[in-house]
Specification:
alpha/beta
């Protein structure tokens, strides 16, 4: 049984004033729980290359715990989430900038472990499974991705022991699976979703946007245009939503769609033709050599 590192709750306590960069679990624990004064804690899990979308997550984490709570940001490029031929080695690493942004947005501690620190015995032989929720859409395109994601999320929840775990709604399937894991496996944490942050022209912020050329960035706007077109057709039912979005993608130069789906946000399965209520319209596509995902919430009537 893991030891309980966090004392019982009390209303107020002093917070750490400067973001401390930690590399090991022992360093993290010493920095995140520097005294016996109990406070609310929140974690934002990232793979680094932080941008304004991540900043929104850190700000929300600070809002959840208040000025006297503690906020941790984890920076770890998790190899278990990358399949053969994916961009693990190419994934951007910008730790100095990440620490500066995290501190500016209100984080107290940044936990940036090595692969050996997270997996000291090599790749784990026992991993969590996303089950049926991880088999479609992103899971179909990236087999094993969600199993790797859940495994590291579970480890980081144990290490950081937060009251709140803050995730972006841009990764809608990931958020749905994490919420289901927390419910099914009795994790004592509240999962908080934060709306997608977009550029003024609608492009969803992503660490992978830096791989787009100027022309490709313009082409990538077809993803958000398709989603907005589908959202605007929500009053006409699921079929109209799918058709409106698909029409935009079909005429988009330089865009190779992977999937376009209208899904139930709880189960992340395709919404039936008679579906009514809030759904998620999700898209994945390659623009040049860069694979992008995006989604919007749609009220279907």
């Amino acid at each position: 049984m893991a030891r309980d590192r966090r004392p019982a709750k009390a209303p107020k306590a002093a917070k750490v004033r400067k973001a401390v960069l930690t590399r090991t679990v022992d360093e993290f624990e010493a920095a995140f729980w520097p005294d016996e004064q109990p406070v609310d804690n929140a974690v934002v899990m990232t793979m680094g290359a932080l941008h304004e979308g991540h900043a929104a997550l850190v700000r929300e984490a600070r809002r959840q715990v208040g000025k006297d709570g503690r906020v941790a940001v984890t920076v770890f490029v998790n190899p278990l989430q990358f399949g053969a031929g994916e961009d693990l080695d190419r994934y951007p690493r910008t730790l100095d900038e990440d620490v500066a942004l995290a501190e500016e947005m209100g984080a107290d501690v940044v936990f940036a472990p090595s692969v050996d620190e997270m997996y000291p015995n090599g790749e784990p032989l026992v991993r969590l499974s996303a089950g049926p929720m991880g088999e479609g859409f992103e899971g179909a395109s990236r087999p094993g991705h969600f199993d790797g994601m859940l495994t590291v999320v579970a480890k980081l929840l144990h290490i950081t022991d937060p009251d709140f775990a803050v995730f972006g709604e841009k990764d809608a399937q990931q958020l749905a699976i994490v919420r289901r894991m927390v419910a099914d496996l009795d994790f004592d944490v509240e999962v908080v979703g934060v709306p997608t942050v977009r550029e003024e022209d609608g492009l969803a912020l992503s660490s992978r946007n830096r791989f787009l050329s100027g022309a490709e960035r313009v082409q990538a706007l077809a993803l958000s245009r398709a989603l907005f077109a589908g959202r605007d057709a929500g009053s006409q039912g699921p079929k109209a939503v799918r058709e409106a979005a698909a029409a935009v993608l079909e005429g988009a130069d330089g865009v190779s769609p992977d999937y376009l789906a209208l899904v139930d946000p709880l189960s992340f399965t395709e919404a039936p033709d008679d579906f009514q209520g809030e759904a998620v319209l999700a898209v994945a596509a390659r623009v040049g050599s860069t694979r992008l995902i995006d989604n919007v919430s749609v009220i279907v009537r």
